[in-house]
Amino acid sequence: MKVIFAGTPEFAATALKAIIDAGFEVPLVLTQPDRPAGRGMQLQASAVKQLALTHQIPVAQPVSLRLDGKYPEVAQEAHELLRNTPHDIMVVAAYGLILPLSCLSIPRLGCINIHGSLLPRWRGAAPIHRAIEAGDTETGITIMQMEEGLDTGPMLMRRAISIGAHDTTAALHDQLATLGGEMVVETLQQLAIAPLTATTQPGEGVCYAAKISKEEAAIDFSISAQVIDRKIRAFNPFPAAHANIDGTTIKFWRAEVANGDSKLSSGSIIEASGQQGILISCDNGKSVLRVLELQKPGGKRLPAQDFLQGFPLKAGQVFHS
Question: Where in the numbering of this chain does the Formyl transferase C-terminal domain appear (predicted)?
C-alpha cells in the first residue's frame, strides 16, 4: 500500500515515522511551508519535513489546497501533484491546512485522519489542551475517515488513555503521538486486507477545541485553584500560564491545589518560603494554589525555592493577570 502523508508538527512526525518503520511506501509528504523560528527568526522546516528529507521522500509545501481560495494556482499545482503521484490512501495528522473535497476524493481509499481526542469530544485545533483544561479524566486517539466537515467523519478506530492528575499537555502529547502512530499503522495494515467498518460519530457530546491564544494563558486568580492548576498544565509548554507581579511577568510551570483557605484577596501571596512552594490565595480566599515551578523573564524554569533566591517574594504581594 502506498501512503501519501500530510502533517506538520512533532505529533505528525511520530506517526510518519511509525508508517515508514512499518514498511509502507510513502511516495510524497505534504507539510506546511517553512516558518521563522528561534531568536534569529530563521526559516525552519517542520518536524515532518525534516523526517521526510532524512528518508529521501519528496516534500511539497503548498500554502493552500483550495481551488477557490487566495492561491488557486498553487492549489491547482498541488492537486495535479497528488493525482500524478501513485498512491492508495492519504494519512493526515495535524497538517494545518483544510483539505477540500477535491483533495479528499483523489486517493483510491480516501483520506484518514489521526485525531488527538475521543471524538466527538474536542473536535478542532487544540484537543489535548482543552481536555486537560476541562478536567477530563480520559482522552485518546480516533482514526477517522475524512469528510468536508471539521473532524466530523466516521470513525475507523478509537482508543482511550487516562489523564493523570499531574499530566501536562507536553506529557500527554507524547503519549498520544505514540498511540496515534501505533493505531494508524494498525489501520493501514487492516485496510490493506479488507475495508474497515466505519462508525458514525454520535450527535451528542460534541465539543469544539478552539485554538489556544496567548491572552487566555494569563492567570485569573478570581477563579478556583483547581481550575487554575488545570490551566497551568494545559498551557504547558505553550503558551505558558503567567501572571504579573510589580510589573514583571512570571511564567507558572507547575502547581497544585493546597489544603485550606485564606482571608487574603485573590492573587495575594500567603507564604513564599520556598520549602512549601509559593502559596497564593484564589477565588477570594476560598482556595489556595501552591506554585512549585516558575520562570522569570530571561531566566530558566526553576523550583520555587531556587526561584526565590534570585527573585524574592513576600507575603502580601499580589499577582495580577
Answer: 211-311
